[in-house]
Each structure stands twice: as structure tokens, then as C-alpha cells.
Amino acid sequence: MNDPRGSRLRRRICHALPLIAMLGTALQVHAANLEVDGTRLAYEEAGSGEVVLFVHGAVSDHRVWTMFRDRVAERYRFVAYDQRYFGPADWPDEAEDFDLATHVDDLIAVVDALGDEPVHLVTWSYGGLVGLHAALRNPEKFRSIVHYEPTVEALHAGLSGERAAITQKFASFGPMATALQEGTKNEAVRRLIEAVFRMDTGAADEMSDEVQRMWDENARTLTPFLEALGAAEPVSCGDLATLDVPTLVMQGSEAYVLDAMMADEVVRCQHNARSLVLQDANHGGPVQQPDAFVDAALEFVSSAR
Where are the beta strands (DSSP E) in the chain? Predict the structure, then answer.
């Protein structure tokens, strides 16, 4: 069936994703490594003032946030880092510690290493699950939190319409699964991107060289990521009810129903969380509607100072 709105979203993300590689010239940018629990995590920072710390999701790394760096660094200290095993760096081991607990520990250690807590936290997708666990453990380290469609699977369990929502979302994940079975990880990553961002099959292959490189350098993370997500410690509604950190939860107006369910449940369960719908966007909202995303994030950060 022809879906004009879906076609517009696919065209928008095809044009927006290359912006990930944009490099600003107005601000001095520092790129280095943080020593965290025996390993090094690449990070990039610019600006000064209160820290706004960005945590990426699956099959990506700190480069996915570069397009927002200069806007944020005009008023704050922008920091984005690679979660362990993500990015182009050599792995410290054979992914034995690739799990949610490691990524939560690393986030807390990164906040400590920056030496300017509490920080404002901005997350996307799986990064939201990491951020929620870190905030539940050490809420004093976070001044505010902005999530974009956080992946908190335990929250949709048992909700009305859950089965239909799961079917809707994962109906398009077959090409990714086939590519994984065939051992073509780079192919699998592109098919995952297309499924998650509701793009036409093959559209991911037309992205910029910089974006293609980021995906290729993170393709090795796909299998351990899926395994880690399946074994992740759940976050319950009761857990979120104890969290006092001011939180903004964004979702796209064209989000998968399942993704919208998770975002809505975070807001419902966390008493001081509020929601915002990014128009004409789905799970790719930060790159589909970059100006609206960063405007909303900065407005919320400013209100939580």
C-alpha cells in the first residue's frame, strides 16, 4: 500500500543522516580517550559550562551526535562518548563484558571522570535504558535527563495491544535476520537501520560515506548487542516511581506503537517526567527533525538548571 507520509519520512532521513558527519568550525573541539575501568572510551567535547552528556544507541557511536555539537556548545559543555565496544577502536577483549551492566558502569564512570557532576543527560534508544539504570543507581549525578524513544522493553509487558504492537514493529526485521544468519554483518546493520527508521529496502546503502563508515565500524556489535538486550535487567514502573531527576521523554508522531508505548510508560511511571511529540518523525527523530530535537532538548536543559 502506498504510504505518502512514510515516503516523506524516508526521504527526510535519507537527506538528514549525512548531516551526522558535519564538522563545525566556530568552536574548538577536543577529541581524546577516557580511561574507564581498564579500557579507553573515545569521546569528543566542545564548549564550557554545565555538562550535557550524550549517550548513543545501537550500531552507532559518538559521531551520531556531532550534528548537534556546535548548537549545544554555544551554551554548555558538549560531551559525547563511545560506549564500550562501539566505535572503531580495538576491543579490550572478545566482548565478554558486552552487556547492560558494563555500559551502566561505564556511564557512571564517565560522569565521574568529567569531574563536573551533576550532568544533563541526553539519550537515544538503547542509550535510554543505560541512562535509566545509571540514574536509578546514582540519581545525584544527573541534573536532568532527555530521552528519545528509550528502549525499556519490560514496560510494555502486559499492556493492552502489546502483541499487535510487537507484530507491527518486527514485521520488517526479516531482512536483518536473514543477513545475520548469512554472516553478512554490514548488510544486517543496513537492513536494521531501514527497519527501525521505516526506510525503503536499499535506502541505507545510499547514505553518505561517513555514515556508511560508522555503520561498518559498528557492525561487529550487532550480535552481542542483541544478546545483551535480551538478557538486560528490566526496569519496572515501580523503579521509575522512585526517580526524581527531571526528565523529558520525546517520541515521534510516526513512532512504532511499541516505541510509543515504552515512551508513554516512562512518563506515566516517573512522576516528574513529561512528554513531547516530535512531528513527522519516527525512531530516527533526532536526525529526521534535528532542529526541533535540539531546540526541545536545550529548552528542557535550560529549565532544569
Answer: 29-36, 39-46, 51-55, 77-81, 119-124, 142-148, 247-252, 273-278
3-state secondary structure of 110: helix
How far, in Å, CA of 139 to CA of 159, rounded?
Answer: 28
| CB contact at 8 A, 237 and 269 | yes
| Widest Cα–Cα separation across the chain | 53
CB atoms within 10 A of CB 155: 24
User: How many whole angstroms separate alpha carbon 193 and alpha carbon 64?
Assistant: 13
| Length of the chain (residues) | 305
pLDDT, tens digit, for every residue of 187-241? Answer: 999 999 999 999 999 999 999 999 999 999 999 999 999 999 999 999 999 999 9
Q: What are phi and psi of 85, to 5 degrees?
A: 80, -10
* Range 296-301, long-range pairs (CB < 8 A, 24+ positions): 296/146, 296/248, 296/250, 297/68, 297/122, 297/146, 297/248, 298/71, 298/72, 298/75, 300/144, 300/146, 300/246, 300/248, 301/50, 301/52, 301/76, 301/120, 301/144, 301/146
Spatial contact of 140 and 118, defined as CB atoms under 8 Å apart: yes
**pLDDT tens digit sequence for 251-286:** 999 999 999 999 999 999 999 999 999 999 999 999
- Kindly tell me the sign of the dihedral angle through the C-alpha atoms of 187, 192, 197, 201: positive
The domain segmentation of the chain, as residue ranges, is: 4-303
272-285 burial, b at 16+ Cβ within 10 Å, e below that, comes to ebebbebeebbbbb
| CATH architecture assigned to 4-303 | 3-Layer(aba) Sandwich (3.40)
